[in-house]
Amino acid sequence: NVACYGEYWLGAGQGVDSMVLLTLGTGVGGGIVLFGELLRGIDGTAAEIGHLKVQRDGRPCGCGSRGCLEAYASVTGMVRTAIEGIGGGRKTRLRDMCGGDTERITGEMISDAVAEGDSFARWVMEETATWLGLGIASLVNLLNPEKVVLCGGMIAAGDALFDPVRKTVLENAFEVPAKRAEIVAAGLGADSGVLGAAGCALARLNTAS
Question: Do 81 and 113 meet the contact criterion of CB atoms below 8 Å apart?
């Protein structure tokens, strides 16, 4: 939530009234600002975007459930997709990069393999981006945000990630909100959380006064 407010206040979300932020790392976190207010929910647990259900009886998720967005669209999910594909006999440079031990594959290795033209690694990235895009399409239909901001280590993949995400959203969300929602990279990097916490504190002080 504080990362979302940081991007809304000083980062990629400046100047908009409504935005969604997704953090893409070992999991998928999220935050939502609607009409200038951070959406917290009655118990402060709102915006658990990574635990939207995208597949019935799908992959196990760290939360104990199955089929969560996080199980497919996080770095952890992307690595799992790669391991499953290699286990199925797919040829890829990732075999050499991990020294034959697929459990050592990282998101960075996959991004590097994509940059080197590895077709399997590109498929893994596109598959991950498609799952992410499906989750975002649901958020776009539900919330009609002006911006969707992505942050975390995965965004270093650049267009290899963003292009299929945007394509999937346009194909699966309603036309008007899909075209309105600009999907962009975060602008504050690792500082978004710290700055967002400061912004939340200032907003609360201003409200109290």
Answer: no
Going by their DSSP bridges, the two strands 182-185 and 147-151 should be labelled as parallel
pTM summary value: 0.90
Tell which residue, 13, 62, 55, 60, has the closest CA to residue 38: 13
pLDDT tens-digit map of 81-134: 999 999 999 999 999 999 999 999 999 999 999 999 999 999 999 999 999 999
Orientation angle between helical segments 119-143 and 107-115, nearest 10 degrees: 110
In the chain, what are the domains? 2-208 (3.30.420.40)
The single-letter code of the amino acid at 113 is A
Cα(136)–Cα(148) distance, rounded to whole angstroms?
8
- Tens of pLDDT, residue by residue over 4-17, are 878 887 688 899 99
Q: For residue 190, what pLDDT is reported? A: 57
Strand-pairing partners, residue 33, are 19, 38
Burial class (CB in 10 A: 0-12, 13-18, 19+), 95: middle
